[in-house]
Amino acid sequence: MEEQDETERRAIEKAMASFRLGELNQARAVARETLDKGIEAPFLLKVEALWLQQEGRLQESLRAYHHARTLDVHDPAILYGIASVLSEMGEYEKALQIVEEVLKANPAAASIHYLKGRILDKRYQYKLALLSYEKAEQLAPKSAAVLAAMAANCFSLGNLERASKLSDKALILQADEPTANIT
Question: In 3D, which of 66, 142, 82, 141 has the Cα closest to residue 115?
Fold first, then answer.
């Protein structure tokens, strides 16, 4: 048992290091190898789920996130992942329910406000989406992703001047934030 715990710990550390460097494929390779040995950990399942999501394998991704949730019911990143996948699948109402659940427990989560804005944008609820983006920007003022989403949203609302200013700010920040990822 101790050997399995040590193997799990090393795998998580290695996958986290790759993930932090933006090397999702490498992080997924470590996660997959460890999961194939029957060693399950929420972080490794989240890496697998994110990789599957980016590959467009949404049903598999959703299963991996749900499996991770059985191991850690309190991790908001797992719920974020589930909501994100549901949104990509067009299940906006379910995704919004999960987002609201996470926001009740963690109202200062910029990434969740950002995701809520993305979902509302997809539902053409631009004014409500803008409110979510604005909240995300208050919490993460140097996020190029948030500013770019706000710019696109303002463009959709016909506020071209604000859209232009936000786009400029996002482009400036993007140089320092290559992945433009706030999660």
Answer: 82
Report the candidate in 63, 54, 62 with the shortest Cα–Cα distance to residue 23: 54
**CB 181 within 8 Å of CB 175:** no
The answer to whether 86 touches 66, Cβ cutoff 8 Å, is no
The Cα 27–Cα 51 span in angstroms is: 9
Look at residue 20 and tell me whether its pLDDT is greater than 80.
yes
Tens-digit pLDDT profile for residues 120-137: 999 999 999 999 999 999
Residue 57 sits at the vertex; the CA angle it makes with 55 and 60, to the nearest 5 degrees, is: 130
Model confidence over 151-163: pLDDT tens digits? Answer: 999 999 999 999 9
Total H helices, total E strands in the chain:
10, 0
